[in-house]
Design a protein that fits this description.
single chain, alpha+beta, Porin, eight-stranded antiparallel beta barrel, 3 helices, 22% helix, 47% strand
């Protein structure tokens, strides 16, 4: 079952890239496809992702749900990324971690973050961006589901702390997902 899901995810991603290259999905996808190609084929960093906190928004959850949910999504991920000449970061990655119900969840995606820098040699940075990807959860029989997310982060040299907010409704979604990214 897991191998079938991984193959389905890879095929769906390949179909989206092929459709984008053919101009079917629009101009904005051309930009993403070209950026992913640039990351893949040109100089890039290798990244280690470490999920460490999943805060369930206390304004949208009742105490019963907060008490039963896991907020320590320990897991790991790998990716490749680069910075362009304007200090904008973009990367492709895959992560696996424990979801709110302590089941394994995966996320495969592309992310982009525009950064403001400070300090000697622009070593400090803070930025805003987005993540576009596919998630797989037990509630959906591990069928890949698209999940675009707003993202933010702060970093120093090769270490970044990032967050993505999963919007939702009462007692579902509305989770701030935090992870560290270490570049090599």
């Amino acid at each position: 079952m897991k191998l079938k899901t991984i193959l389905l995810s890879a095929m769906a991603t390949g179909c989206m890239i092929n459709a984008a290259e053919a101009g079917v999905l629009g101009e904005w996808t051309d930009f993403i496809v070209n950026d992913v190609k640039d990351i893949w084929y040109n100089e890039h960093n290798y990244d280690l992702y470490i999920p460490f906190y999943a805060w369930h928004n206390r304004l949208t959850y009742d105490q019963e749900h907060i008490d039963k949910y896991n907020e320590n999504p320990w897991g790991a991920g790998l990716g490749i990324s680069h910075y362009n000449s304007e200090n904008t970061w973009s990367g492709v990655y895959a992560m696996a971690f424990k979801d709110s119900n302590s089941y394994v969840e995966t996320y495969f995606g592309y992310a982009r973050q525009w950064n403001w820098t400070a300090g000697d040699e622009n070593q400090w940075r803070a930025g805003l961006g987005y993540a576009l990807g596919l998630t797989q959860r037990h509630e959906y029989a591990y069928i890949p589901v698209p999940l675009p997310l707003p993202m933010f982060g702060v970093g120093y040299r090769n270490i970044d702390i990032n967050g993505a907010y999963v919007p939702g409704i009462k007692n579902d979604g509305n989770v701030l997902f935090m992870f560290a990214r270490i570049s090599f």
